[in-house]
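COURSE: Structural Biology Practicum
ASSIGNMENT: Worksheet 4, Part C
STUDENT ID: 0417
INSTRUCTIONS: Below are two proteins. For each, the amino acid sequence is given first, followed by its structure token string. Answer the questions at the end about the second protein only.

PROTEIN I
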Amino acid sequence: MIGLCLGLAGVVWAQLPFTSFTLAWNHTVEKIRWEEDYRVTAQGLVLGEARVRGNGAGMEIPEDAFLENGSWHYRRQLSPLQPLKLGRTPQAGDYQLCFEGRCQAMSIWVGAPDARQPGIELWACERH
């Protein structure tokens, strides 16, 4: 069965039994929330809808986005990501993984962001 792996350079730090999730974070400068919905497939992580609550430095809203409930909603056509690489430092704050109607800090599964390890990868993997 497929699931979501978190780690770096193919080394699994945590394995989660989800086939879909939302990745959420606050922009480091503008402090505006971003959310991206992913499906976990055998080919990798497939980005579905994304949402952002505003714009600012490095946060241009795509032309085809629409405003609903205070967020700009849009879709990007990307090939499956395998892995999805994320920067993760104490200064930027932590990402949240949302599933089954609730969000939790990524640190629950992989520890707090650490300047000595400023990145993490997410990928589709076979659960054991």
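PROTEIN II
(use this one for the questions)
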Amino acid sequence: MKSQRVSFPGSLGHELAARLDTATDRPAAWALFAHCFTCSKDLKAVGRLSKALVGRGFGVLRFDFTGLGESGGDFGATSFTSNLEDLRIAVDWLRREHAAPSLLVGHSLGGAAILSMAGEVEECRAVATLGAPSTTRHILETLRAQVPEIEGDGTQAVQVTLAGRSFQIQKQMLDDLESHRVVDAVRRLGKPLLVCHSPRDETVGIDHAKEIFLAAKHPKSFFSLGEADHLLMKDPADARWVADMLASWASRYLDAEPLDPSKAEPDSPFDQPLEAGEVQVVGRAGFVQDVTTADGHRLRADEPTSLGGTDTGPNPYDFLLTALGTCTNMTLRMYADRKGWPLEGVASRLSHRRVHARDCEDCESEDGMVAEIRRVLAIEGDALDDDQRQRLMEIADRCPVHRTLTSEIKIRTEPG
């Protein structure tokens, strides 16, 4: 999965931090995800859900509301209304930069926000909620239990604790929460709706799902999240399970089919997306290894059957030689092009073996075994003269991978 950091101005003028998750430059469809009240786009469950949707062919935009996560501004100065405006701005940004979201997904109060504004998004073809309250009074009652009364003109801030985290809120937030009627928006929605809720949800009771479902018009569906907790954090598999179901359900209403799960990005124990330059290797049973690069390329490594593998991909040393060979060819191509030389093509043939140090005349080691890589170059180009060919042979030893392999290397291993 490719995860790109982006930003755009929010409703209160502060920069909103976002992530754009994709597997290809042209996803089958775009989804906008709204996280829970006081959560952030980088919540583990949000990352897992986004990654799973990307693996099914979607592009996903997730962002931090004003004052949360990496976004600027003061959370205490926000309101449910400003959150709705942040969502509208996110939709407009996605519409302008890529394509409008055809799928809107909201978690907890983010689900209530999605339900409140989804009807305005003409391009939206499907809406889904996860553990969403049917009314903003749900969070209002939670806040009033801690702060029975806030006096003043609405700018006085008081501290509350939500999900173990402390926040400053103002009276305007409570007043604003009291003014919204989510169920009325659901009745006017006019789009296919999927309501996902766990009967074990202790934060937002299952009765909220019932009220949303009854208020909605067909087509509508309900999906029980079983034993999942409110934040989908108890079991990493819950988010992937929800994403699989969500992608399959949404495909009925979108113009594109989801990817075959067998072609999806392999499940990973790492929650954060790959950054530029990183590679992920996931192994399960046997020797099969699924390789994913930060750019979304997917490869497979294995061992031959003679060594107990299933021979479904190159072995690790094949990949090592491939890295050196491809780097060599690319380096020679760049050098010849820069010089304007008539190089038509380069082919490298590589092999690896271990030899006794005493049999290696140019090795520094005198005892034991030494790793030896043999590289044979075929430089094509009838118009190349002897000096140019000789120079290209010398340049081969200067490719970055060659230099890495022949320089001091430190490999540091740490728990994930």
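ANSWER KEY EXCERPT:
Q1: The chain has a mean pLDDT of 84.
Q2: The chain has eleven helices and 15 strands.
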